[in-house]
Amino acid sequence: MSATIKNPSLIPMPTLRKREGFRKYLRVTSFRYIVQGTVLFVLAVLPFTGLFRIDLGSGRFLVAGYQVWWSDFFIILPFWLFLISGAATVYSVLGMVFCGWACAQNSLSELVDFLVKKIFRRHKHAIGLDTLTSAPQKLPSNVGYRQWFLFISLVTLISAVTGIVFAGYFIPPAQIWSDIATGTHLHQLLWVIGGISAVMLLNLFLIRHYWCNWVCPYPLWQHFFKSEGTMKVAFDDTRRGECTGCNLCVNSCIVDIDPRDTKNYTRCINCGECVIACEDYSEKRGVPSLLTFHFNGIKVDDAGKRHINRLSPVVTRFVLAGSFSLIPLSLFIYGIVTYLPFHMTLSQVPGKLDMYSVRLTNKTPYAHSYRVSESGLPGKTVDWREKTVTVPGGGQIILPFRIEKGREILGTGVHPFSITVRSLNGKPGEISQAAAYFLPSS
Ligand code: SF4
Ligand code: SF4
């Protein structure tokens, strides 16, 4: 006979072995710090590698120098759908790990909390808005100006770096460096970077986890996907009497909850700090940890051996949500394969019946040549039938197109025609756009 343990807090805890040598570092929190550092590093260097930027002027994304427009429907929509469904799969299985392991707001806030602890030797609540909602631990009255100077300087440095990185997502890095080197537009640049840095400074100095706990809507969205089976911190209720109430776990919690009472809908971000605190403390006492990560849907057989219940809701959810994300992923791949690296629009010049303009944009970072041709109107009525043009990388040209002697040769009425652009080098592709030349009777 075997029993399915419904309440995660009643799952028998594994016996912990003492950690020695390198194994001491193989802990969930070590992996978390590596993930957090990697995410922050990638976010910081990304705009300067040229791999990703946002062009605010045109509202376009720049991926490795290639422009992605909102009209690149099969790239934009499936990409976001894939992100949403992929994220939902992660939330279903691992809970709010995004907040605890990857979110830059949380990582930077933790970094400043660490500085508060190291410089002032006080709990993180000694500085910031969290003092309003949590029991503050006052700063000692003998805090010297050197400690304040060190703390403010480091937080200002982090804010300034964040300001430069953030600006790099919207202003081409080459332009930032040239503005700094030549002093051109330096004033505006400093306003942008200074403005972002000031907001960041305010955030890191005062707000930090107050944002996560009381303002950010993202945790709410993640809650929708939590179920009984989602990974969570579990307290071994069968050994409640062994808890000494040392509060190490409570004090280590980033989001100020009591890890001994982590129900499904708490704000726990699965950071593992409390688990490690209890593991370390229990190890000293020679007893198994009272806190550990658990999924539900685990079977414990009569011999006390644990088996993952493969039909548990979380696995089903993972399969369903994971499978759904394959649909946008396939559409996204289709979008990449069919991506046209140029764009053309044909429009009539306002107020001129016989004048049109062909606007041709090269969406790649390299110069490309194109053949532009007209069809549908008699050759004698157009000022050109075919042209070859070269457009610089990321550039745009406007080709005027005129219909001549329309009244004499074509007469009144509607005369359809079309303009076709074909790429001559790079990825092959063709765009046509139809138009109608209309001549009224008078
Ligand atoms: S309860 Fe534990 S795992 Fe959850 S946020 Fe607090 S410290 Fe992290
Ligand atoms: S760290 Fe462990 S022993 Fe200490 S209060 Fe938390 S659960 Fe109890």
Structure description:
The protein has a domain of 98 residues: Immunoglobulin-like (Sandwich), CATH 2.60.40.10. 42% of the residues lie in helices and 20% in strands. The strands form 5 sheets. It has a 4-stranded antiparallel beta sheet, with no helix packed on it. The protein has a 3-stranded antiparallel beta sheet with strand order 1-7-8, with no helix packed on it. Strands 2-3-4 form a 3-stranded antiparallel beta sheet. A hairpin with a 4-residue loop joins strand 2 and strand 3. Helix 4 packs antiparallel against helix 6. The longest helix has 25 residues. The structure holds iron/sulfur cluster (SF4) (2 copies). One iron/sulfur cluster (SF4) binds next to helix 12.
Assembly status: single chain
- List the helices and strands in order: EHEEEHHHHHHHHHEHHEEEHEEEEEHEE
CATH superfamily of the domain at 342-439: Immunoglobulins
| Class derived from helix and strand content | alpha+beta
Can you summarize the main beta sheet?
4 strands, antiparallel
* Unreliable segments of 5+ consecutive residues: 1-16
What tags apply to this protein structure?
442 residues; alpha+beta; Immunoglobulin-like; four-stranded antiparallel β-sheet; 42% helix; disordered N terminus
What's the topology here?
Layout: E1 2-5, H1 28-49, E2 52-55, E3 60-63, E4 66-68, H2 73-94, H3 97-102, H4 104-120, H5 130-133, H6 145-168, H7 173-182, H8 186-207, H9 209-215, H10 218-223, E5 232-235, H11 248-252, H12 273-285, E6 291-294, E7 298-301, E8 306-308, H13 313-337, E9 342-348, E10 355-362, E11 368-375, E12 386-391, E13 396-402, H14 406-409, E14 413-423, E15 430-439
Antiparallel strand pairs: 1-7, 2-3, 3-4, 5-6, 7-8, 9-10, 10-13, 11-12, 11-14, 14-15
Helix pairs in contact: 1-6, 2-13, 4-6, 6-8
The protein binds iron/sulfur cluster (SF4) (2 copies).
